[in-house]
Specification:
By secondary structure, this protein is mainly alpha-helical. It contains 20 helices and no strands. Helix 4 packs antiparallel against helix 5, helix 5 packs across helix 20 and helix 9 packs antiparallel against helix 10. The protein is globular, with a radius of gyration of 22 Å. The model has no long low-confidence stretch (mean pLDDT 87). Keywords: Chloride, Chloride channel, Ion channel, Ion transport, Membrane, Transmembrane, Transmembrane helix, Transport. It is found in: Membrane.
Length: 447
């Protein structure tokens, strides 16, 4: 009995135990701080780009190609793990048992570079988001606790999962969405075991965001609602359209990640920086044609449309998909999660225009959740995040229904989840880099 009591009581009085808890809390707060600095920096970068374009829209023809080329060159030359979203790299790191491979995908140096390069892309007008980078940054900060130097705080995998949830929670003030993202996206291939670690990370990262930015809602408070039973038709239509479109777009992104066909593909492989500049030029031209509506994340345009102050054009969702794809194939750092919400809002707005009525904002919210669910195949995460972003609990059941319907339609088009499919080549590249370095070291030792 004495031995048992000592065994159960010792963690409570162990200085090492509380030191590890304090380190975990400190890392969560740091991850939240990174996400907040990122959010503030992104707002300033987007605002500065808007001011530049307002002074002369034609400046985008020089700014976008130069920015795309510059971000692509720096990322390719010095920080290859920062290319693209960041979520595939984080998933790849969680799947690898090799500490060296994980270090190639997640580190504090990579986190800092990811933040700066993504801000550079937003300043250039690229249609990228900060959610994927926030995931990689949060996971990098939490993963820095892994190893023996701090004692066993948690397994590397659990720390990565916790950091990814903390990044989402702090970036968009969506704590439930952060937890669901950690469970549904990060734990597809293994059971969710990071319960206390993830909760601690999400709570304290959220508290950091709450303390600095306040209790805000990403898209404000959206008073959209549907009448029943007539509201079942918008749910079905948005769910089906968002699922098919999101699944098709997911397949396009996965196929593009493997390489483009024909001469364009050869040019992209042989001259990636020039190709990135070309993607920037195309982005600028589309921005000029659409009056600047397709630049950056699409947050301002979506929020204005939800509030009824500035409607979206019927072609907005298609133009937005095109500029997202251009940023993706250029391989500059930046996510597709937030821009995908703008595509969904545009899709809902177009469907509302085809069926005029008073349900426009409701269809836009349904379009957001449907397209996001269809693109990522994460139905629970999608409706939870959109619900938290719009602070509209009246739409909970319609959002759930549209998300599940979109998931079903998307599975028939693209059976494999986007980030899961992109994680495989990211893991293979990191493993190949580690293998080349090991072979070089062996060769040097032999000589």
């Amino acid at each position: 009995m004495a031995r048992s009591s000592r065994r159960y009581a010792s963690p409570l009085i162990s200085l090492g135990h509380w030191r590890r808890r304090a380190l975990l809390v400190g890392a969560a707060l740091l991850a939240g701080l990174f996400a907040i600095v990122f959010a503030i920096g992104a707002e300033h970068a987007i605002e500065l780009h808007a001011r530049i374009i307002a002074s002369s829209p034609w400046l985008s023809l020089a700014l976008a190609p130069a920015g795309f080329a510059g971000m692509a060159w720096v990322a390719r030359r010095f920080f290859p793990a920062t290319q693209g979203s960041g979520i595939p790299q984080t998933i790849a790191a969680s799947l690898s048992p090799d500490a060296e491979v994980r270090g190639r995908l997640l580190s504090l140096k990579i986190a800092g570079a990811k933040l700066i390069l993504t801000l550079g892309g937003l300043l250039s007008g690229a249609s990228i988001g900060r959610e994927g980078p926030s995931v990689q940054i949060g996971a990098s900060v939490m993963h820095s606790l892994a190893g023996r130097r701090f004692g066993r705080i948690a397994s590397s995998r659990n720390l990565i999962v916790a950091g990814s949830g903390a990044g989402i929670a702090a970036a968009f003030n969506t704590p439930l969405g952060g937890i669901m993202f950690a469970i549904e996206e990060m734990c597809r291939h293994h059971a969710f075991r990071a319960n206390s670690t993830t909760l601690t990370a999400v709570i304290f990262a959220g508290l950091m965001s709450l303390g600095i930015l306040g209790n805000y809602t990403y898209f404000g408070r959206t008073p959209a609602a549907l009448s029943w039973p007539a509201g079942i038709w918008p749910v079905l239509i948005c769910g089906a359209a968002g699922g098919i479109l999101g699944g098709t777009f997911s397949r396009l992104l996965v196929a593009s990640a493997r390489g483009l066909p024909g001469r364009v593909g050869n040019f992209a492989a042989e001259r990636p920086i020039a190709f990135a500049a070309g993607c920037g030029l195309a982005t600028a031209l589309i921005g000029l044609v659409t009056g600047g509506a397709t630049y950056a994340t699409g947050y301002a345009e979506s929020k204005a449309a939800l509030e009824g102050t500035a409607p979206l054009s019927v072609y907005f969702f298609a133009a937005k998909m095109l500029v997202i794809w251009l940023a993706f194939v250029s391989r500059i750092p930046g996510g597709v999660f937030a821009p995908a919400l703008a595509v969904g809002a545009g899709l809902g707005s177009t469907l509302a225009a085809l069926n005029p009525g008073e349900e426009g904002p409701a269809l836009m919210v349904l379009g957001m959740v449907a397209f996001l669910s269809g693109m990522t195949l994460t139905p629970i995460t999608s409706f939870v995040i959109v619900m938290e972003m719009t602070a509209n609990h009246e739409m909970l059941i319609p959002l759930m229904a549209a998300s599940v319907i979109a998931y079903g339609f998307s599975r028939s088009v693209s059976p494999r989840a986007l980030y899961d499919a992109l994680a495989v080549p990211a893991l293979e590249r990191a493993q190949a880099e580690v293998g080349r370095d090991a072979a070089a070291r062996e060769k040097a030792d032999a000589s």
